[in-house]
Amino acid sequence: MDVDNLLDSGLGRDFDDDFEPFDTAGDADLPEERFLDRELSWLAFNQRVLELAEDPATPLLERTNFLAIFASNLDEFFMVRVAGLKRRILTGLALPSNIGRAPHDVLDDISRRAHELQERHAAVYQNMVSPALADAGIDIARWESLDEAEQERLHDYFSRQIFPVLMPLAVDPAHPFPYISGLSLNLSVRVRNTRTGKQEFARLKVPQMLPRFLEISSTEPGRQRFITLEDLIANHLGDLFPGMEIVAHHVFRVTRNEDVVVDEDETENLIQALEKELLRRRFGPPIRLEVTDDMDEVTLGLLVRELDVSEQEVYRLPSPLDLGGLFDLGRIDRPDLRFPKHVPTTSVQLQPNEPNAKPDVFASISRADILVHHPYESFATSVQAFIEQAAADPDVLAIKQTLYRTSGDSPIVEALIDAAESGKQVLALVEIMARFDEQANISWARKLEKAGVHVVYGLVGLKTHCKLALVIRQERGELRHYSHIGTGNYNPKTSRIYEDLGLFTADDQVGKDLTRLFNELSGYAIEKKFKRLLVAPLHLRKGLLKRIDDETANALAGRPAGIRIKVNSMVDEAIIDALYRASNAGVPVDIWVRGICSLKPGVEGMSENIRVRSILGRYLEHSRIFSFRNDDDPQVYIGSADMMHRNLDRRVEALVRLVAPEHLAQIDGLFERAFNPRTSAWSLGADGEWTRHHLDDAGHPLDDMQNRLMQQIAQRKRPGGRR
């Protein structure tokens, strides 16, 4: 798993505020307590990540990555979701009536579960992963375990490379308690003046630009030894406080409210308002204090008082804190401790017909719709090649594209710049409100504007989350549309670890739909209807509810019916209630969800025909699929939308209908594999508990779906037998 990609993208970004009221009056036939708590469901998702770190069958360095992912996910959960709940308490807002609980009660449940999980997380590192690393020749050493020569070498390194950048900050009447930046690692230091005997307090920030794990020169072949940066600094405090006696030192870490709120209706310049809000975000109030479990009560009391946190918000954990730093260990060159390397293949439909011929994406799309499946199939030779060929092709007149998240060195953005500089009409819809990528997207937007790209920011009050690209090409005196609609971002880095689908088509109807949609996003057009797309916020919810209701009607009439949905999150109450009604009518419903699921499956009289599965592994399951049997005339859609309020009501989302029989069969095959009892997966029970099924009755591993897909897709051949 590529660590840099994980850091760039984040793996838990399902945190927008989703607290809109929901009218349950029309569902008197359904139990009042029919929804699982979304916050606890998210914590259950992160527990599944932790279970991968606990599994000795997971390659060891991948286990360290999963520990780091768990930590990073939980940080974002606190910064946004917990922060949102606290904001509602401070402003006097209650949760919607359908949730049925006060924010204080929800926070109590979150705190109790989060404490349990963080303690379990620390124990997995201390008792399982760290000893396994040592057995594999990777030691995380403590200062006191080093011999004299090793300490001397590290002392020299500290003096030259670390000491000059450290900034101890005293706390006394002349020096108020300093600002503690969010997610920074800090040392609390108590010192005693040897002349006066008076004790003082100081704070020392561990520099974030330095490596968290420093390698120690090892004389033993085949072994690598590391020491944490904070351990090295803590054992050189005498250099920082000469003449003072070091009484005690401890490590602590603060998580702050980093939610961003911009009133788009009240601002004339969205970018300027957002930049001000990003600056303010750095100084959000603390919502979690992590301290090492050996911290004395005097120091803890000072931190609690100065940071104004409650006892509930204090997490006592064994060192090291911030196991997100384990991403650093992921860079160790030990292929034997990783998942086997996988090189994505080029989709057979995008390969040239003749050996050694130059690929022509437009010619391939002209022949038939192409469905690509990342990361099993290459993003670089499909989506990236599509945009790059469009930028270089003299017959291409215009390129229109949405950009939600992209990488820091994006070839997609560079291709759009090249296209604009060559005189093509280029429209880029940049979503600058993409959480935690706001500053990067502002920078890209300005770079694109300087190159002559028409940059727009979508519709006021709506995030543009859809993944769309449209190329207008002149062919034989006529204009032709080439379209791409995907489930994932136009990000070459995350495309290597995110599982996503994308449709390429030259279908004229799809091209006209996208043309109208881009006009709506960049201008003042109000498009009421699309032919092959379902678009939020106006039509997507209604369209999906209609299709669910059609399946319900088919089942009641004795016709073939069935619903299969794959999403990251299943939260929206109206969609869930429609699925309950379908289940009661006898419709078999399969829900394949990565993260949050508020639906209760398997409840008699409500959802006994609903199954819920979750699959986690080396790749992040990210595609969204909606499949309806429709009396054996399947209606299948892929796109960008999860089943959440924000996606259905406050975002521009788009689903496209697949029509090629081979694509419908491919989607059907994915669901058959995901719900096969021989496939390793988690199952959700009616009580909200997830149960992992990864071993058969004889204790043998069940099939890893992602590995099977890698093998299957790599073996695909072009007609005629050539791969």
From TrEMBL:
Polyphosphate kinase N-terminal domain ranges (all copies) = 35-140
Ligand binding (Mg(2+)): 405, 435
Q: What positions does the domain Polyphosphate kinase middle occupy?
A: 150-329
Keyword set, alphabetical order: ATP-binding, Kinase, Magnesium, Metal-binding, Nucleotide-binding, Phosphoprotein, Transferase
Chain ranges of the Polyphosphate kinase C-terminal domain: 360-525, 533-695
Residue positions of the active site: 465
Which of this chain's residues are annotated to bind ATP? 73, 498, 594, 622
Q: Which GO terms describe its molecular function?
A: ATP binding; metal ion binding; polyphosphate kinase activity
The catalytic activity of this protein is classed by the Enzyme Commission as 2.7.4.1
Q: Which cofactor does it need?
A: Mg(2+)
Query: What CDD domains does the record tag this protein with?
Result: PLDc_PaPPK1_C1_like, PLDc_PaPPK1_C2_like
Which reaction equation describes what this protein catalyses?
Answer: [phosphate](n) + ATP = [phosphate](n+1) + ADP
Provide one Gene Ontology biological process annotation: polyphosphate biosynthetic process
Q: State the top-level EC class.
A: transferase
A GO CC term attached to the entry: polyphosphate kinase complex
Q: How is it modified after translation?
A: An intermediate of this reaction is the autophosphorylated ppk in which a phosphate is covalently linked to a histidine residue through a N-P bond.
Similarity comment text for this entry: Belongs to the polyphosphate kinase 1 (PPK1) family.
Q: Which PANTHER family match?
A: POLYPHOSPHATE KINASE
**Briefly, what is this protein's role?**
Catalyzes the reversible transfer of the terminal phosphate of ATP to form a long-chain polyphosphate (polyP).
Indicate what this protein is called per its UniProt record: Polyphosphate kinase
| The gene coding this protein | ppk
